Amino acid sequence: MPFWTMFGLAQGKATTRWPDGKDHGQTGVVGMPRYHPERCVAHCQACVDACLPGAISAREAPDAQSGHIEIDYGRCVNCQMCVEHCPEGAMAASEDWAFGVRRREDLLWQRAIASEAGQALGKAVRGFKRSIHIRHVDAGSCNGCESELQALNNPFYNLHRLGFFFTASPRFADLLLVTGTVTYAMREPLKRAFEAMPEPRWVMATGTCAVSGGTNGPTYASGSGLDGVLPVDIYLPGCPPNPAAIIQALLVMMKRMPQRVQGGRIRD
Amino acid sequence: MTAVNVSELPATELPAAARRLRDAGGRMHMAYARGRSDGQVEVRYLAELDGNGDFQLWRVDPVDGELPSLARDIPLLGWYEREMRDLFGLEFLDHPEPVPLVLHEGAQPATPPLLAQADPAQPMAFRAQPWTLPEVPEEDLQYLPFGPIRADVLESAQFVFFYLGETVLHYYPRLFFKHRGLEKRFEGLMPALGAVLAERVSGVGSVAHALAYAQAVENACGCEVPPRAAWLRTLLAELERLYNHLHYHGLLADATTLKVGNAQGRWLEEQFKQINGRLTGSRFLRSLITPGGLRRDLEPEWVHDAINDLRADIGAYLDQLADTASHLDRLMGNGVLPLRLALDQGATGPVARASDVDADLRRDHPYAAYHAQSLEVGRSQGGDALARFEVRTQEIYASLDLIARLLHSLPRGDVYAQCRPAPEAQGLGWAETPRGALFYAVHFDAEGRLARVKIKSPSFSNWRVFPFTVHGTDMMDYAINEASFGLTIAGCDR
Fold first, then answer.
1. Residues B189 and B89 in one domain
2. Are residues B186 and B97 in the same domain?
3. Which residues on chain A are in Cβ contact (under 8 Å) with B492?
4. Of B189, B203, B260, Cβ closest to residue A7
5. Structurally, how many domains does chain B consist of?
6. Domain range holding B41?
7. Is the pTM higher than 0.80?
8. Average pLDDT for residues B431-451, to the nearest whole number?
């Protein structure tokens, strides 16, 4: 056993300081495509036809100002098909993966953003400044989200340093972190886990499946995410959201970081 | 190139053919049903006579929706028959376990959901009912239903233990909580969108699923993939194997309470995921494979140096694990899977090779660029958790060597060739995932859209096998045994 201690010490420090500094570990990782309505042309369906989860639809009353399509980033699985199929370059690849928002409508693309800033909204998080216990429930995922959630406790991200802990019992949990589409068989177990949590309690829809059902349908079995099943406090689309995106969303929920996404895009 | 020889078989001759296959040392890979365009349902059995011959595909028409069950002669078929019963409403006569599998007790679809006339988007009615559990006679036996929500960040499934003190007398995993009906979701899609969906069947097998799917479409439509695309696909598949195997080593070290061993495995896994992200834009190597090749070219030359930088760390880590007595003590003799059982119940991948099954699709039925690579297939005779650990260790070294050779011999040229869907075509694709043999069968309709996609994931096979290594063992060995199997649930449940 002493050999392992020495071995570990010899490895040095692997942990990032992110969100302090820039080392989030996601160099090159693509996120949600950015929409450039001025390049979008009328009567073109290329991106709509290329979008498996139906995140892009044709606008009923198109106008040149706001473009000809509607985009729901809560359905986007960042597969880049629209980027590759758009003949005009109106959908552009980006590294916008930090997409945690408090309100579902902040994931809908809008030219004009009239509403108040997202971070001003939502339940006040009192008494939970620095220590949050998370109960994760897989409600029918592809295991990609689990893989990234498990990565949160690897030496690089080391989620504990930020005061977040995964807990076994919903009785000890402040946050229910849900992945997956909410299949017919997981619907009841999920609700029971939520009901077993003490109040105040929060729910985070993690990954596009939990936000909207993603690419999965709906089918006879899959469900369409958390809406209509549980009240959601924070939405994080992404397929899957990378560990840094999950950390960002958790910090947004705690108001330790501002929500940057509004009107379906990152506002600097 | 492996051929798929199709033969028609009357239902009455099916049991004799199955016994002939078994007695000749052949293996059954999967069975599935599909609705033909004439409205009839047919059942297909994918068999293989010896390790590196061609595949045999038997087509059988059920008589009045019934077929004889083959599960008593070829036990692994038990699950496939139960799946067809749930999803197509077929009956298999004299089935040894005639209870639901894929759809839970209490699920009431208006029509068997994979029949053509079933509404694809209509959620089925469901009222949970108790599982049909095996009858266990002892009166003072304790009963522990664990899950579907378990401790830590894990996939959902319920594990039922019947135990007495420390001994697990019987173990029953109730899976398919995560059944999403994905095979139905493929229906009606154009082939390129099917690849996006295939990547999302099992996240940590994104490459393998997209690859097996794309190859099935290419086989159906007679498409050739440019050499550079084949090489890069192989590179992606081996990068996927590396981060998965390192993950399972970390998981196993966690189960034997080696904290640093766990952390180091996860750290190495993370470094590979970051390489994946830099190389492809996706930590899971997604958004590249499509029928016809790759969606865009890659510049992977720098990966050689990046992996070389990690090689010493990986070697030191694997040596250290293999030199830790407390780790090895917990693995030795744990979860023994004898060869006969592995073959009868259909084990695959590192699990099978650790029980002396000499099978690896990369070598036996080469695809992508594997035909051009010599591959040392790791194997052990132990059959226990230690053997599974050792086989994965061998495969990590083999993948590192293979990646170095692939990068050395990467051809220049295009990475995509037009692959038009052929109406009414059908094809089979396969890939050796980090967890074992994955098969995709695709059928097109008259418009060139997907009409039926069958996915046989390796975890569907290994979950069937796993309980046999738990019955009669100690409770404290369970978590280590499970970690050594390296199972996912998403691919199994679909």
1. no
2. no
3. none
4. B260
5. 2
6. 1-119
7. yes
8. 96
